[in-house]
Amino acid sequence: MRRTYRGSCHCGAVTFEADLDLTQPSYRCNCSICRRTRFWPAVAMPAAFRLLGGEDDLVEYLFHSRRNKHYFCRHCGVRPFGIGTDTPVGVMYGVNIGCLEDVPEETLAAIPITHVDGLHDRFASPQYTAHL
């Protein structure tokens, strides 16, 4: 069931809200940036994501193919969301589930996870997933 969640970076400089259905799959990826930052996104389409504050506190990082935009808070370094520009569903926001506020532990534990082999640029499960 879709509902509106509020979220922020660790220091609170960047705030957002997103309409998400946390019963739908989230993603764990083994690409170099997701693996290093332990990024765990839920998908929000552009109309379902709203940056409420801190736009000037965000730093954009592009790497490799420069297809996806990774945003970090310039103060605390947390990555609250990113924008996928070349995905199977088109442009979408990857909302960091760890940045959502007031989500009970039992809800977090029940979120389905789809593993993605970003290391090899494939939308399929990699051979090893336990570390993701």
Instruction: Tally the helices.
Output: 2
Number of domains: 1
Query: Quick one: how many beta strands?
Result: 10
Overall pLDDT level: 93
SSE succession: EEEHEEEEEEHE
First-to-last CA distance? 26 Å
Task: Give a structural overview.
A hairpin with a 7-residue loop joins strand 6 (58-61) and strand 7. The protein has a single domain, classed as Metal Binding Protein, Guanine Nucleotide Exchange Factor, Chain A. It is mainly beta. It is built from 2 helices and 10 strands, in the order βββαββββββαβ. A 5-stranded antiparallel β-sheet has the order 4-9-8-7-6, with no helix packed on it. It starts with a strand and ends in a 16-residue tail after the last strand.
What would the keywords be for this entry?
132 residues, mainly beta, three-stranded antiparallel beta sheet, Metal Binding Protein, Guanine Nucleotide Exchange Factor, Chain A, 36% strand, single chain, 9% helix, five-stranded antiparallel beta sheet
Fold blueprint:
Blueprint: E1 3-8, E2 15-20, E3 26-29, H1 32-37, E4 41-44, E5 49-53, E6 58-61, E7 69-73, E8 81-84, E9 92-96, H2 105-110, E10 113-116
Parallel strand pairs: 3-10
Antiparallel strand pairs: 1-2, 2-5, 4-9, 6-7, 7-8, 8-9
Write a short abstract of this structure.
With 132 residues, the protein is mainly beta. It contains 2 helices and 10 strands; from the N terminus they run E-E-E-H-E-E-E-E-E-E-H-E. The chain has a single domain, classed as Metal Binding Protein, Guanine Nucleotide Exchange Factor, Chain A (Beta Complex).
